[in-house]
Design goal:
Layout lengths: L1 H30 L1 H4 L8 H6 L7 H6 L2 H10 L1 E3 L2 E4 L7 H12 L4
Antiparallel strand pairs: 1-2
Helix pairs in contact: 1-6, 5-6
The site of heme C (HEC) has 23 residues, from helix 1, helix 2, helix 3, helix 5 and strand 2.
Length: 108
C-alpha cells in the first residue's frame, strides 16, 4: 500500500517536472518564434522588420539580464515610443522564467 502511494507521488512529481520543463519551449514556439525565430536568430519576416537580435550571439545574450528579459516578456519592450514586443498576457513568472531559460540555450 505504502509502495503504491510512494510510486504515485514519484510519478506525479515527474509529470509536473516534465510539464514545466517542456513549457519554456512550447510557450516560446507558440508566442515568440514568429519574431525571434525557432532558432533564436530573429530571421523571420516579423523579426527582421522589428529588428529582433540574434540570440545565438553570446554578446546579445550577455547584454540582457534575466530580470530584463522577464520584464520584457511580461510588460513588453519598447524603444522610445515604438513597441517592439507587446506584453504577453496570461504569462506567469514561472512561464516567463521558463522562456528565458529556453532562450539562453540558443547561445552558441
Ligand atoms: C512582434 C515581434 C516579437 C514577438 C512576438 C516577441 N518579441 Fe521579443 N523582442 C522583439 C524585438 C524586436 C526585440 C528587441 C530586439 C531584440 O532584443 O531582439 C525583442 C526583445 C526581446 C528580449 C530582450 C529584452 C531586453 O531587455 O533587451 C527578450 C528577452 C525577448 N524579446 C523575449 C521574447 C519572448 C520570450 C517572446 C515570447 C513571449 C517574445 N520576445 C516575443 C520582438 C518580438
Amino acid at each position: 500500500m505504502n509502495r503504491i502511494l510512494a510510486l504515485t507521488v514519484v510519478v506525479s512529481a515527474f509529470a509536473v517536472a516534465s510539464a514545466s520543463a517542456a513549457d519554456g519551449k512550447a510557450l516560446y514556439e507558440k508566442d515568440c518564434a514568429k519574431c525571434h525565430g525557432l532558432d533564436g536568430k530573429g530571421k523571420t519576416k516579423m523579426g527582421e522588420k522589428m529588428g529582433a537580435k540574434d540570440y545565438t550571439d553570446p554578446k546579445v545574450q550577455d547584454a540582457v539580464t534575466d530580470a530584463a528579459s522577464i520584464k520584457a516578456i511580461k510588460e513588453g519592450f519598447k524603444v522610445g515610443d515604438k513597441t517592439l514586443m507587446k506584453p504577453s498576457e496570461g504569462v506567469s513568472d514561472d512561464d516567463a522564467k521558463a522562456m528565458v531559460a529556453y532562450m539562453r540555450k540558443f547561445k552558441k
